[in-house]
Amino acid sequence: MKSKWIRFAMLMVSLLGVLLIRAYQQDLFYDPFIEFFKENHHQDTLPELSMGKYLLHVIGRYLLNAFFSLLALWALFQNKDFLKFSALLMLGLLVLLLPVLVILIETSEPGSYMGLFYVRRFLMQPLLVMLLIPAFYFQKNR
Q1: pLDDT of residue 56
Q2: Mean pLDDT across the chain, nearest whole number?
Q3: Distance of alpha carbon 74 from alpha carbon 32, whole angstroms
């Protein structure tokens, strides 16, 4: 019974962590695109940004979300293979998508920001965990 409560607490901590990252994103992370994408941005030019600082904040936010996602996956499944696979997948996607983000920032023209919007969103939000949970649930109950 104690283990069940610990797993529940871990799940709640991971959920709270993700929610706090989202709630305080403007205070915690340098991201000039937050306001840009909230407004009618289709014909505007991209805002000025410090690329190095921006990338460090993207990586930091991604790693924080990855940590809380891995904590949630551990709380739900307690399977080392699932955790290793998830960590490697998250790291691989970061390595793959970070250069794509830079290329899109450097080459996107007004009116063609959707690629940038979605790559940035994938790096900023813990979307992968929403795909992994049902996949691992299916795999576990197979």
Answers
A1: 98
A2: 94
A3: 34
120, amino acid identity:
R
Alpha-carbon distance of 97 to 121, in angstroms, equals: 11
Distance CA 7, CA 4 (A): 5
pTM exceeding the 0.85 threshold for the entire prediction: yes
95 vs 41, higher pLDDT:
95
Cα separation of 134 and 73, whole Å? 11
Count of all residues that appear for the chain in the document:
142
* 82's tokens: 């699932």
CB proximity list for 86: less than 8 A, separation 6 or greater: 69, 70, 73, 128, 129, 132
User: At residue 128, what is the residue type?
Assistant: L
What amino acid occupies position 72? Answer: A
Contacts of 36 (CB under 8 A, 6+ apart): 44, 46, 47
The beta strands (E) that lie in 9-78 are given as: none
